[in-house]
Amino acid sequence: MTEILDAQVVASPTLTERQASILRAVVDGYVTSSRPVGSGFITEKTDLNVSSATIRKELLALEDGGYLMQPHTSAGRIPTDMGYRYYVDTIVAPNKLGGGDSRMVSSFFDKAHGELERLLGQTSELLAGLTTHTAMLIGPDPDLVDVRSAQIVSIAPSVALVVVVSASGRVDKYTLDIDPNTSVGAIDSASRYLAATLVGSPVGTNIIAARSGDATVDALVATAIAAVDVDVSKSSVYLGGTSRVAADFETIETVRGVLAVLEKQLVVVNLVRDVLDRGLRVAIGAETGYETLNECSLVVTEYLVDGEPAGSIGLLGPTRMDYSQAMTAVAVVGRELSSRLSEES
Fold first, then answer.
1. Which of 71-75, 131-135, 312-316 has the lowest mean pLDDT?
2. Which residues fall within 8 angstroms of residue 13, CB to CB, at 6 or more apart?
3. Going by DSSP bridges, is the β-strand pair 134-138/147-156 parallel, antiparallel, or unpaired?
4. What is the pLDDT of residue 2?
5. Where are the alpha helices (DSSP H) in 152-264?
6. Is the dihedral of CA 213, 216, 219, 221 positive or negative?
């Protein structure tokens, strides 16, 4: 069972400039090599101009402060979650995508058209392709997105189709069984009353239909609303790069735990929303709030439609991730997705 934890972010005291440089070298070295980092590597990769003894002393101070740990006696150091947190909060920041990646993103959104579901699915694959991690997109919450259009269309004597288009571009279709003797005029009237009920309002529970006074029309509108109301109450989740989970983690138990979380759509939605609600853009280890994700980090942001939050986008990978690359990719893709959706709204 996935256990939800009450994770708190603990503020870290400020490190000296030298300690911050050493911490950065350890994180960068460990992310690149996945091996503990020793004083020789730090001497080679920094411009501190101090002795190895001084570096070892600072490494010990960082270890005592909880920023680093030594997995084995006489081995180098690796970052702790607290070390990663300081690194993310004070040392690195989103940068610019490389030329090739930037052109890939621009080309993708220049050509991206069609239904929202397809766009979000393809965007998750794009984000995963920019990194080595699993991408997740949470579709707009139907309770927060207004309906742009709604109609009922007869497609056979006893079958009608309800089509609802949201301001975010989402298209939902629902098949209704109807009395084969229902007239075209009654269907047209029901379509108008359905539009009068839904257009300009968010789709959620407790939808009250406009009344026509015609029992056949009102029954058809009520049936259409019942189909819409039941089916669109959840945000959709789109995952990209889930096959990379096995390569991101060392143990089978961790891989299974991460995949178990990703398989549960509601858990993914709650995970991302909880991180954002706590004011985080990067959740590290226990900060995710899920015990099975203690070896993971999650980088998230919101995407917007016409300046208003619509959904969220993120990357899930090991705590030993390239945070600058991940934050940059999430920020750029989120911004471009917001622009595309706002153009089509």
1. 71-75
2. 65
3. unpaired
4. 43
5. 184-198, 215-231, 245-248, 252-262
6. negative
Cα 238 to Cα 137: distance, rounded to the nearest angstrom: 5
What is the per-residue pLDDT for 295?
Answer: 94
Assess whether the region 17-91 and the region 99-141+235-344 belong to the same CATH fold. no
What is the CATH topology of the domain spanning 99-141+235-344? Beta-Lactamase (3.30.450)
Strands (E), 257-328: 282-284, 296-305, 308-318
Whether the Cβ atoms of residue 164 and residue 149 lie closer than 8 Å to each other: yes
pLDDT bin (cut points 50, 70, 90) of residue 9 is very low
Domain ranges of the chain: 17-91, 99-141+235-344, 147-231
Residue type, position 276, single letter: L
Q: Starting from the edge strand earliest in sequence, which strands make up the sheet with 282-284, in order?
A: 237-240, 134-138, 308-318, 296-305, 282-284
What kind and span of H or E run contains 13? none
SS3 content of the chain, % helix, strand, coil (to 5): 50, 20, 30
Task: State the pTM of this model.
Answer: 0.75
pLDDT of residue 1: 36
pLDDT value of position 294: 94
How far is Cα of residue 184 from the mean position of the Cα atoms in its chain?
A: 44
Place of tokens 């819409």: 228
Q: 86-100, 115-129, 135-149 — which is least confidently predicted?
A: 135-149
pLDDT at 10 (0 to 100): 42
Matching CATH number, 17-91, of 1.10.10.10, 3.40.630.40, 1.10.443.10, 3.40.50.1820? 1.10.10.10
Is the model's pLDDT at 319 over the cut of 90?
yes
Q: What is the identity of the amino acid at 265?
A: Q
